[in-house]
Queue: 4 jobs
Job 1
Amino acid sequence: MIPLLLSAFTENIPRNDFLAGIVWTIVLLVVPLGLLYCVIKWACDDAHERNGSKMLAVVLVLLFFPLGLFIWLLIRPKRKEFDFAQYKADHPQKFENTKPAEPDAPHG
């Protein structure tokens, strides 16, 4: 019934069904999949940055989207602060040839 009603309004409009099919494929398939990929990539990068489980983040977001994204936001590990003194103590070979910075010469 609805296609008959629509055809009454659109019978004088020239159309290219192939082009319309391509546009709808992009709109209905490629855009949502691209968005889902971006969200999964972000969750994976976030898990890596926070030393969390990348697999857990991906599974939650992929299988339970969008609820899984909110669950990941709630259970993700806290971000760890970078401790430069500890890093320097753990990697002394990287700092053995470094000199302290010299003060700039006075301008004038």
Job 2
Amino acid sequence: MTREELEADYQRVKKQSQQDYKDLFGSEAPSLRRDASNIIKNELSETVRISKKEYDQLIKDARLLAFLEATGVENWSGWDFAVKEMEKGA
């Protein structure tokens, strides 16, 4: 999610939460801004930006891997070696 989408979602939830609180307790709800800001920051820290070209390549690679796994690539000669080499480089 983009920062704008998160902020819009926060505003929507905040408005509904305040109304729910008022309906239940008959008074205005306390401020939720600090908690929501922390949630937004945590969500954004989980976000990675990459170029469209990199994204397209990741999708292509994921599709290829899915097809290979579906055909039993893990049983092919060299699979274990390739996985071990990849893990060494990680």
Job 3
Amino acid sequence: MDNDTIAITRRAGGKTLSYRVPIRERVKAGLERAKAKGVRQGRPTAQVSGAHLHMLQQEQVSIGEMARRLSVSRATVRRRLRALR
């Protein structure tokens, strides 16, 4: 068996059936097809309004409290505030 195939064995009616499945190749081909179609891959970015952040900053709300109110992480709040500068 080469490195690009995985052997899957199972018992069916007392007989062992063995299948070779090139999973890595199929996944790679699928990802390439999606990329060619322009599909964005990965986790979606959190949507945070710059105006809302600016308003909270003017009220001198802490970064942690901003994150809680907006239901995002503190790191996301810091990144968005840095981008606003």
Job 4
Amino acid sequence: MTPPKGTGRTKGTEPSAPADLTYEQAMTEAESLIDRIESGDLGLEQSLAAYERGRALLDRCDEILKRVEQRVTELTPARASEAKDHDGDTDDAEPQDTDD
């Protein structure tokens, strides 16, 4: 039985573990699997295997996005603080009336 295309398999080799893939690699493979499932070219067993692989790939993408989002959150307050220190302005300061 030939494995579904887009599963990262070549003859005699296992697909890459999702944890070993970059976001782009995992998303590209998941999109390919979705296309194959939706095309109806796969039998029931192959569709199930492709679905399971696709779910694991999308979980990997979600894991990467959460890690990146956390990193951005960590960096954002530091960047805002640096900008305040650099120009002396603060966002919390009340505007001063200079028309007196």
